[in-house]
């Protein structure tokens, strides 16, 4: 019996670790392929497979000439895709979208969780219903609204649209508000505090875990948004974003995948740096967001 249990536990561990190794392999192969491809010039990329190491790696030399040769694709991608403008536009969009989503989402959640009025449950149900609708199915009506408001091909119009399409953050804030005792509100109001004072001075500072969670979810979604940015920011000389700038390397005669991979690695760097510097806050916010409620 003991031998059977030992074999069963050993088989279970082997299966678990084999599954993890397989999942890691599947996740890492595209990343490794992208890194390898990013360092190959056009001729070498056309003549070799995607997993063959670049020739420049084999001739490594700690010199300025080698660095210039090795990172030639990165320099070309940065210049031809106008990635400086793309990062600037994306930074502006992220700042206002995240600020607007946090403020509107938290204030609306405060009203829905603290004030009981006719239609409260209906509004929550409508928000839930809206979150279940596929975004692509609503693009015809949304595009019409954007056109009538003259928001197409404007940065502020795109920012307003991105701020108004986030239902998940509202439910995250509602979930946190419902776990904060209403006695805090009542005590502050008895001391003469207004509802705005209760929200901004007492409750809003307690929403730090929820704010971190919303920043992660909304920030990643906005940073990687391609479809809406391509559809509503039509002037690709002024309103390119990080997600759309690499489209310049695609065309009817073929795609320059070595330059696309180099640009992708450049776009990954800001997110990687932020994750490394703020991983404690990120993990804390996601963990607290998972157990609340």
What's the topology here?
Layout: H1 2-38, H2 42-47, H3 55-58, H4 64-70, H5 72-80, H6 83-114, H7 120-132, H8 139-148, H9 155-163, H10 168-177, H11 183-190, H12 195-203, H13 208-223, H14 227-232, H15 257-291
Helix pairs in contact: 1-15, 5-15, 6-9, 6-10, 6-13, 10-13, 11-12, 13-15
By secondary-structure content and strand pairing, the structural class works out as: mainly alpha
Number of helices: 15
From the spread of the alpha carbons, the general shape counts as globular
What Rg do the Cα atoms give? 25 Å
Low-confidence stretches: 289-293
Order of helices and strands: HHHHHHHHHHHHHHH
Report the span from N to C terminus: 43 Å
Instruction: Determine the fraction of residues in helical runs and give it as a percent range.
Output: over 70%
Question: Overall pLDDT, averaged?
Answer: 85
Sheet-strand content, in percent, reads: under 5%
Care to count the β-strands? 0
What is the makeup of the main sheet? Answer: none
Structural write-up:
This protein is about 70% helix and about 0% strand. It has about 290 residues and is mainly alpha-helical.
Which descriptors would you attach to this protein?
single chain; 293 residues; mainly alpha; 15 helices; globular; disordered C terminus; Carbohydrate ABC transporter permease; MetI-like_sf
Outline:
It contains 15 helices and no strands. The protein is mainly alpha-helical. The chain starts with a helix and ends with a helix.
């Amino acid at each position: 019996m003991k031998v059977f249990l030992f074999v069963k536990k050993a088989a279970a561990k082997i299966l678990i670790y084999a599954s993890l190794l397989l999942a890691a392999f599947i996740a890492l192969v595209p990343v490794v392929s992208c890194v390898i491809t990013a360092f190959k010039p056009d001729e070498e990329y056309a003549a070799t497979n995607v997993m063959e190491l670049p020739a420049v790696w084999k001739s490594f030399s700690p010199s300025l000439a080698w660095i210039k040769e090795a990172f030639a694709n990165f320099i070309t991608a940065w210049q031809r895709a106008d990635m400086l403008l793309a990062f600037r536009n994306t930074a502006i969009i992220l700042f206002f979208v995240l600020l607007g989503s946090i403020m509107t989402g938290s204030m609306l959640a405060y009203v829905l969780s603290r004030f009981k009025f006719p239609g409260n449950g209906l509004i929550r149900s409508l928000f839930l219903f809206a979150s279940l609708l596929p975004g692509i199915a609503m693009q015809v009506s949304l595009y019409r609204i954007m056109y009538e408001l003259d928001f197409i091909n404007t940065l502020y119009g795109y920012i307003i649209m991105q701020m108004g399409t986030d239902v998940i953050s509202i439910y995250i804030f509602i979930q946190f508000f419902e776990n904060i005792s209403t006695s805090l509100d009542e005590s502050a109001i008895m001391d003469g505090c207004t509802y705005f004072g209760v929200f901004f001075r007492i409750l809003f500072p307690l929403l730090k875990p929820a704010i971190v969670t919303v920043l992660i979810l909304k920030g990643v979604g906005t940073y990687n948004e391609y479809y809406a940015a391509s559809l509503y920011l039509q002037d690709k000389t002024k309103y390119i974003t990080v997600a759309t700038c690499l489209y310049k390397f695609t065309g009817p005669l073929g795609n320059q995948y070595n330059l696309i991979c180099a640009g992708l690695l450049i776009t990954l760097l800001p997110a990687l740096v932020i994750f490394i510097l703020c991983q404690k806050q990120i993990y804390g916010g996601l963990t607290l967001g998972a157990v609340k409620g």
